[in-house]
Amino acid sequence: MLSICLLMIFVQSGKMADSPNCDLKSLSPLQLFERVTEQGEKVRALKAGKAPKDEIDAAVRMLLSLKLSYKTTTGQDYQAGLPPKDLVLINNGTTQEEDEDLVNPWNVQTSNAKGVDYDKLIVRFGSSKIDTDLINRIERAIGQKPHHFLRRGIFFSHRDMDQVLDAYENKKPFYLYTGRGPSSQAMHVGHLIPFMFTKWLQEVFDVPLVIQLTDDEKYLWKDMTVEKAYEYARENAKDIIACGFDVNKTFIFSDLDYLGTSAGFYKNIVKVQKHVTFNQVKGIFGFTDSDCIGKISFPAIQAAPSFSSSFPQIFNGKENIQCLIPCAIDQDPYFRMTRDVAPRIGQPKPALLHSVFFPALQGAQTKMSASDPNSSIFLTDTPKQIKTKINKHAFSGGRDTIEEHRKYGGNCDVDVSFMYLTFFLEDDDRLEQLKQAYTSGELLTGELKKVLIETMQPLVAAHQERRKQVTDEIVKQFMTPRKLAFEF
Ligand code: TRP
Question: Per the similarity annotation, which family is this (predicted)?
Fold first, then answer.
């Protein structure tokens, strides 16, 4: 019944039957929104075409009943052009409430020095908090201490992670998918966060990993030639490989390259494209009528790697392998859309692990920008540059004078050096000591910065050393479509 009902709506939406005889409660908020919108258009068309009164009345009754279902399901009144709130990506100013943080794939802004309010974001996006219970469950499943990104709330939110653990405990396979938009050659330390975490996940769960380089996305969004975007993809691949991924378990691909060669991948793209309307992507991503059609259809390309059939060479043509996506929370809109579509194209919904944003040196109000060299520490920085940047630009939560600092102590919640240490200093005890000492005023800002400098210099130098070892030949191996070291 449900599938017939969905078929009516999505395959034949233009000639839908009048009676709401399928169970409206089983529709997702977005599907209901679509139906109300379509029915509204139908009523207008009937009126404009001077249709018989009883036909118009029937269509109006249907419209009212749909609006009622919409309200019961979402708790919101239907408003034309405004999709249900948990699916709305607040990006065009029209739906953003005064005190809300702005978070979308292209922009992150908050007025709070502590950064984005992540608890509120969980509620707004409708995801789940990674709580102690889940962290303990992960620990039991893998038989070792969870990564400090989990223990410290850096990966703070998820969708269906319990399902992934169920599968893992029942010896069912899953795979990891993450990605990067290669917008420039210059990657900064914040870009490493999802990859460091993904590497850890790959090791502890021993699963295949696919990494999408969206050079097409960057070509569409930035002022950049296709050739340049492709070149950045290969350069960025070197930094990603330098994180230590296992070539036998990892497939890295550039969209510009792989899409044209993989029938499996392209089939999934068109399936997603068929099941998402312009209205929906407008609501989710804020596209307008004057955005190029490349942008409008791009979300389907980021969705496709969530389905194992996009990689027949890895999964032996198997369709239903569960996918887990570690990513920064700003990528969630793509995957909310993917999860909405998945059951309608007979695929499992991808699970997700979301990270917080990595703060700019200037403070946690914005995400960093690769175009401002002082906003972050770059993977190409020298030890001296790292030292100068931290000393000069890292926003301090310390007091104005030494006397005041000793008396009142510093504020770790807004201090960027301390924030960076929570990302990169692995020693829990040391971090706690620093926090105590800084908060009590015993430790001065300059001293805290020194600890950060001494943490970052070797970390970046080691990365540079590993990157040097990554030859074009190695990049080619990672980027060649092939079977990985797993049987399916
Ligand atoms: N759109 C992402 C970016 O601009 C790149 C990306 C593609 C991605 N697929 C992904 C990120 C999956 C995380 C997970 O960086």
Answer: Belongs to the class-I aminoacyl-tRNA synthetase family.
Residue of 155, 178, 354 with the most ligand 1 atoms within 8 Å of its CB, for mutation: 178
Give residue-wise pLDDT tens across range 243-287: 999 999 999 999 999 999 999 999 999 999 999 999 999 999 999
Contact partners, residue 86, CB within 8 Å, separation at least 6: 29, 74, 124, 125, 126
- Which has the closest alpha carbon to 253: 292, 305, 291, 203? 305
* Distance between CA atoms of residues 431 and 254, nearest Å: 38
**In whole angstroms, what is the distance from residue 161 CA to residue 164 CA?**
5
CATH classification for the domain delimited by 118-359, as one of 3.40.1400.10, 3.40.50.620, 3.90.740.10, 1.10.10.10: 3.40.50.620
Give 460's DSSP letter.
Answer: H
pLDDT in tens, 434-465: 999 999 999 999 999 999 999 999 999 999 99
Single-letter amino acid code for the residue at 475: V
Whether the CB-CB separation of 445 and 395 falls below 8 Å is answered with no
